[in-house]
């Protein structure tokens, strides 16, 4: 996209240079036209050579025709420059809009990531707490199981003694 902008700027600069050359030529032609008019006026006052006047008049008409063509060309170039400027402006606006949209998306994604990080931290904290609670419950159950086994063993010993005592009685 930057290459397109650069190309458009280069084209715009090229057309501006062409426009300046055309203006310079117009000024030169205008100066030349003024000189021709002065020369024509001098010829009319002196009326030495009728053919020179006709030739100068033809030249003047040719220069006028050239000036008209240059003015038309100048207007055409001005319109093209305006079109290019408008297109460049639209492209820049589009680029700015796209940048703003991307900034918004990045901001939204960053916020979403932040929320997920908070959620993960909360879950990890709860998991750690549950793990500690589970370890404590396992320890309690292990102690209870050990007591139960001890009681079972004592019960069997007492039962065995009872059975032995019954047999002896």
Automatic annotation (TrEMBL):
GO BP term (any one): de novo centriole assembly involved in multi-ciliated epithelial cell differentiation
Record localization: Cytoplasm
Keyword Amino-acid biosynthesis belongs to the record: no
Keywords: Coiled coil, Cytoplasm
Gene Ontology CC annotations of this record: centriole; cytoplasm; deuterosome
PANTHER family documented for this protein: DEUTEROSOME ASSEMBLY PROTEIN 1, SARCOMA ANTIGEN NY-SAR-24/CYTOSKELETAL PROTEIN SOJO
Protein name: DEUP1 protein
The organism of origin for this protein: Stercorarius parasiticus (Parasitic jaeger)
Gene that this sequence comes from: Deup1
